[in-house]
Design a protein that fits this description.
Blueprint: H1 9-14, H2 28-38, E1 44-45, E2 48-50, E3 53-55, E4 64-65, H3 75-85
Length: 86
């Protein structure tokens, strides 16, 4: 079984396994650093896209979100993901 990453949305729907995993992409220490960063974030209720734009619907989606911005403090996380993706 091989994992294939597609950028084409049509091809993505054809994938039997629409995910990949990377074991040990981050060390335990790095994961702890990410968790410590996460404590500084403000999380918002997730939204769905409906006819009238974005709206909150807890019957469909009940999660909290926050987008990680690339800063000097988080740059190493983006670099690691880019390395893994390559």
């Amino acid at each position: 079984m091989s994992s294939i990453i597609h950028n084409n949305p049509v091809e993505m729907r054809r994938s039997t396994y629409p995910y990949v995993s990377w074991h040990n992409g981050f060390s335990e220490k790095e994961l702890q650093e990410i968790e410590n960063l996460e404590k500084k974030f403000v999380f918002e209720d997730s939204k769905i896209f409906a006819d009238k734009g974005l709206s909150q619907n807890n019957d469909i989606r009940r999660s909290k979100i926050n987008f990680l911005e690339k800063t000097k403090e988080t740059e190493w996380i983006f670099e690691r993901f880019n390395t893994i993706i390559k």
